[in-house]
Amino acid sequence: RRILGSQRGKASLSPPSKGSTAHIPAIFDWLAALEGKIGAQASCSSRCGDSSAACSCRATCEKLGSCCPDYWSFCVKVSPSSGTLLGGRDVALLNVTFETGLPVTCRFAGTTETQGYVGPDGRLHCISPLLYELGLVSLEVSVDGGKTFPWSASWSSVHHNKVPPAEKSTLVNETKWQYYGTPGTGGPLTLTWNPDGLPSGHVHLEVWGYDEKGKPYSDNWTAEWKYLYSLQRNYPNTGQFSFLPVPSARFGGWEMGALRISANGSSEGQP
Length: 271
Hints:
Layout (H helix, E strand, L loop, with lengths): L23 H18 L19 H4 L6 H4 L3 E2 L2 E3 L5 E4 L11 E4 L3 E4 L1 E2 L5 E4 L7 E8 L8 E8 L11 E3 L1 H5 L10 E4 L9 E12 L8 E15 L3 E4 L12 E8 L8
InterPro entries: Ig-like_fold (IPR013783), Ig_E-set (IPR014756), Somatomedin_B-like_dom_sf (IPR036024), Somatomedin_B_dom (IPR001212)
Protein name: SMB domain-containing protein
Pfam families: Somatomedin_B (PF01033)
């Protein structure tokens, strides 16, 4: 089978003339090249969403019975299938297993790359990044340092108000947060979360700012989520954190933002 992928098969891609004897070896070259080409089209490696005359790598192939033999090995399912656009969700590939220690690169929406890992059970995991779009986006996976991305899945990026309550943090006494700094409103602020939602003994608590630039609804209207600073690094994942806010002249111009809690394995301000 190795001969099918050799350069010999490219020497003659048209069959020899009828009755010829001098070009008999070229017959095998032509057949080998043709079989190799058909074999490549019959694989879903890096081809999820495409189809060929031989078979299909589209999701509809499951009902039509036209899937390529390795469709379920490369066009994979993930769990969970959605997460907040702010990122930080641990996503596992369900169809396949890998050897531990492989260099995992995950690419979301065709452009944003993050580093993944292979768990003790052989499941490959990706960490969703900060995304500037909602809805279904592509998720591609590489284990060769980002040279090729044979595995593909779909990931749903949702607004953070739409995620399940167990995945949200809670502002204790939300009114106090909203009117903090006004007369009669001060003191420590408290934040709680579900510690089981982050498989980490310690977490980072970060402040991110949101801003929009340009003329609204024009081509130059852009949005920006920007890491501002950390409230606490390597904080025990107890599910509760209290702090006393301090005014900051450097970041006083930011009027809207979010607090992000991430596992301590992530770097500071990682998108």
